[in-house]
Amino acid sequence: MARYLKRVSKKIGLDPGTMVHIGKKDAMAIQIRLFDYDAGHYEERPVTTFDDLKPYKDKPTVTWLNVDGLHDVETIAKIGEIFGIDPLVLEDIVNTAQRPKMEDFGDYLFIVFKMIYSWGDKGDIVSEQVSLVLGTNFVLSFQEEPNRDVFETIRQRIREGKGRIRKFKSDYLVFALMDSVVDHYYLVLEKLGDKIEEVESKILTDPNTMIPRQTHELKRDIISLRRQIWPLRELLFELSHSESPLIEKTSEPYFRDIYDHAIQVLDTVESFRDILNGLQDVYLSSVSTRLNEVMKILTMFSTIFIPLTFIVGVYGMNFKVMPELEWRWGYYVLWGVMIIITVGMVTYFKRKKWF
Fold it and tell me: What angle do CA 155, 160, 164 make, to 5 degrees?
């Protein structure tokens, strides 16, 4: 959080619409790939010059421009200039700390949401911001990590002409991209559920000092997921009930379907949060029970040794007149008395089911 605030502080005092990249630093060059298609036509090519883009702005076919990398703000600005994108939108695109939202600019819609594409090596949720600009016949997608997203199946469907994607307009492409992102939420939740079950099993069988740390990390992931999915639900509701001419009536049921999926994901996240809260209570109860068991055992041993210590203490005094010290069988009698006391107390504890 402190690092994020430090990056955001670079924008203080700048004019609205000033593009300042706030996100991961990447030395790799920005990568731009263009898809142009309709029912009977398909074209895919990398973009090397901005002149390559100009003919596609007003083409009747659907054009998808996929931009990987946001650190080169000049390139993003040039793309925005070609497609007529407002500077405020470009400012939000390079600022990867945006809350999921949708803004209607008349000629195009600006959509921001979070993509969860993998599970990190250390068990952390890895996510990045995806920005979409939906125009009449084009879709611009901007993301931070080059060559790492959840859109490969969409690209393959466009290449092979499978499904409805090449028969529909640009709004259906936006649906397909968002649907792929939401579907991958389930994969992350599945792994998160496995982690929770693992912690639950440890709590019930062998609770240790690492449990609170693991539970805290899982709660942090749950909070992060909830923060990303809750506004996405509102965004999808707006899209499914949008009056924009860019969203056709035939596409609204598809956005409602994603909205239902987002609700299910959010319900699962809430359930996980409740489970983790319960696991914390179970862990504290388990630790308390184990402590009580240990204290009970120690108390019983102390209780057994109290009379034995008393007897040994009495006969360990250095008085000259102690008749029992002169008894021939005194030592063996004393051992017998202590054994009888010990056996009697242990038997009593077992009858009371304290052992």
Answer: 80
SS3 state of residue 200: helix
DSSP summary character for residue 24:
-
Element (H, E) at 42: strand 41-46
- Structure tokens, 76: 């993003």
36/75 Cα distance (integer angstroms): 20
Q: What is the number of other CB atoms lying within 10 angstroms of the CB of residue 293?
A: 10
- 10 Å CB burial of residue 143 (0-12, 13-18, 19+) is buried
Answer whether residue 339 shows pLDDT above 60.
Answer: yes
For residue 148, the SS3 value is coil
Going by pLDDT thresholds of 50, 70 and 90, the confidence category of residue 6 is very low
Compute how many other C-beta atoms are within 10 angstroms of the C-beta atom of residue 29: 12
Coil/strand/helix, residue 139: strand
In 3D space, the residue among 65, 63, 31 whose CA is nearest the CA of residue 48 turns out to be 31
* Edge-first strand listing for the sheet containing 31-38: 41-46, 31-38, 62-68, 138-143, 125-134, 109-119, 101-104
Single-letter amino acid, residue 225: L
Nearest to 200 by CA among 282, 125, 122: 282
pLDDT of 285 > 80? The answer is no
CA distance 265 to 12: 36
Residues 6+ apart with CB under 8 A from 140: 65, 67, 79, 83, 85, 131, 132, 133
For the stretch 148-174, pLDDT in tens is 778 889 999 999 888 889 989 999 999
Report pLDDT for 354: 74
pLDDT at 198 over 90: no
Determine the 3-state secondary structure of 130 from DSSP: strand
Long-range contacts of range 36-41, CB-CB < 8 Å, 24 or more positions apart? 36/61, 36/62, 36/63, 36/64, 37/61, 37/62, 37/64, 37/158, 37/166, 38/62, 38/166, 39/166, 39/167
Q: Please name the residues in contact with 169: beta carbons below 8 A apart, sequence gap of 6 or more.
A: 62, 137, 248
| 11 contacts: CB under 8 Å, gap ≥ 6 | 18, 20, 22, 95
